[in-house]
Amino acid sequence: MSEEKKALIKEILEWVGCIIIALVLAILVRYFIGAPTVVQNSSMYPTLIENQRLILNRTIKIGNQLPNRGDIVTFEAPSKTNVSAAEAKINGPIAVYDKKIDNIFSKFRYYVLEIGKISYIKRVIAFPGEHVKIENGKVYINGEELEEDYLQDGVVTDGRNFSDFIVPDGTLFLLGDNRAGSNDCRIFGCIPIEKLESKVWIRFWPLNLFGKVK
Q1: Going from the N-terminus, what domains does the chain have, and what CATH number goes with each?
Q2: Which tens digit of pLDDT belongs to each residue from 78-93?
């Protein structure tokens, strides 16, 4: 093999190596640090509106950090989200995750690349061991009315499947700000902490609303 061909092969391999390293770094940053996303429904209206662009803080995955009450988070959608009252009574206030992913490549595709994965975005309302009661259109935590200044005036919170319960260990109770139009923990139950994906950090589009999301 000529010296020219050896040099060409070496250069190609170096480029391939650089591309692979860049892809791995991009995946790691997206999975553990931050990622962009687009709001796709109205469940968090008026705080978040469809087609707004956000940056997610994904460091929550490191060490299973707990968010604060009132934080807006994303999480893997439960296996079944349209839960009947009868099913809710049987399963209790914990969302069901029974998706079976057998091999390592499928797991990488689903959990890391998030191909075929559905995520929800909601607000943190209550923590493990807290007593949640929804009555008279309000949310009460351990007997105290929860102040929710992020809701529009006149918004009423109905209990649906779960209106009086203790948040199970290892889970969080999450609600959408658009209570009448949000499919959330009132229907399918509390979300296991390990299913949390990120906290909503910055809205970067539209530009006139650029800034930290609260």
Answers
A1: 33-212 (2.10.109.10)
A2: 999 989 988 888 888 9
